[in-house]
Amino acid sequence: MAIGVGMGAFSTGIVMDRMSSTRRKLQMLLFVYVCLICCMTSLTFVKSIVGAIAFALVYGISAGSLQSLMFPMYATLFGLANLGKIQSIGVALSIISSGCGPLLFGFVHDKSGRYSPAIYAVAAATLVSTCGIAAVLCRQDNKKMAYRRIDTVNNT
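Above: the chain's sequence. Below: its structure in token form.
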């Protein structure tokens, strides 16, 4: 998985350096979240070592891409004035969730004898985040359409 994280972080960093459109960055973030959801739900079907290696590689690439996407997105969406505070909150939440995740997964496994309910719960939470990103993209489209309507009315 570490190889996948390195590949994802490096390649996404190169792409982000060349990308100036906020919309394209949000679309890329949306794509990474969809990849993470697919990886998490497919994990419950992995039965062989080859499947586990494929999962680790794809999940690693997606996780590495997410790491490289988040910090530039903070600057793009919120500006540079409070970037340190915003990034520190993001990192703190990441550390808290990384610490709580194994405890919650263990609790679910102790109660149900399986990890799949916890995996599906994490996939569902990621789906909620994905819907939030999609809503931001739709809102941007609606704003652009509203500005076009105003320009059309003002030009007549």
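The chain has a mean pLDDT of 83.
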